[in-house]
Amino acid sequence: MRIVTTERVLTVDQARAFYDRMGAWQDWQRFYEDPPLRRLLQAAKFQAAHSIVELGCGTGRFALQVLSEIAPADCRYLGVDLSSTVAALARARLCNYSDRAEVRLSDGNETVGEPDRRFDRYVSNYVLDLLSCESTGLLLSEAHRLLEPGGLLCLVSLTYGSSAFQKAVSGVWSRIHAAWPALVGGCRPLELLDFVSSPDWRVEFRDVVSSFGLSSEVLVAARV
Question: CA 93, 53, 202: angle at the middle one, nearest 5?
């Protein structure tokens, strides 16, 4: 049985302060993030991408892999992040692609100041599990606006496990989040599928990948 808790998320200022302080160590999370991110790289057809926007780009680790190994040479990338610490790290990491990759600092708003239908990929990894349901709805509305018809919404988030051990881990994580969100970086398990089951999206791929007991949902949906 899943634990149902009252929605409690970090404010924009609290999230910014946390990741400004801890952003330099964000890449340590790769021990559980890399396996689901590899699944996303396989499922989202980045080899055919020409314009990517990533909300919550972090230190640029995912973007670097896409630009250096998968996407076409003419692919343009825009990364947005709330934290000045991680945005600076992302700019440094992507410096060899500065002619076609840009990293911007967000004010905490879900919107991106770009024209409608500007991108063919909208990426947001380990961000929705930070947001309130209302903010998630706004983010998905903005993703729909920014994507061209048929463009792909590419998401990864913490989720609930299926085995007894995974359920125990996600249950403990949920309890910690309910009592002290900052201790887990404001993130908590959720189900992405709950948010994209609408006529605006057609789910093309979904999987749950677990590593060290932590489960992540990988979801790719096409803009309808």
Answer: 135
What CATH number does the domain containing 18 carry?
3.40.50.150
Query: Mean pLDDT throughout 35-60?
Result: 97
- 3-class SS of residue 109: coil
**Distance, CA of 35 to CA of 133 (rounded, Å):** 26
Q: What is the pLDDT of residue 7?
A: 66
Give how many domains the chain has, as a whole number: 1
pLDDT tens-digit map of 110-163: 899 999 999 999 999 999 999 999 999 999 999 999 999 999 999 999 999 888
CA atoms within a 13 Å half-sphere pointing along the CA-CB vector of 49: 33
Q: By the 8 A CB rule, do 187 and 129 touch?
A: yes
pTM, two decimal places: 0.92
Q: How far does the chain reach from its first CA to its final CA, in angstroms?
A: 33
Q: How far is CA 206 from the centre of its chain?
A: 15
Q: Which domain holds residue 217?
A: 12-223
- Confidence label for 196 from pLDDT (cuts 50, 70 and 90): very high
CA distance linking residue 180 with residue 36, whole number of Å: 26
Supply 153's token pair: 């919404």
- Using the structure block, give the residue that is written with the tokens 């496990």: 161
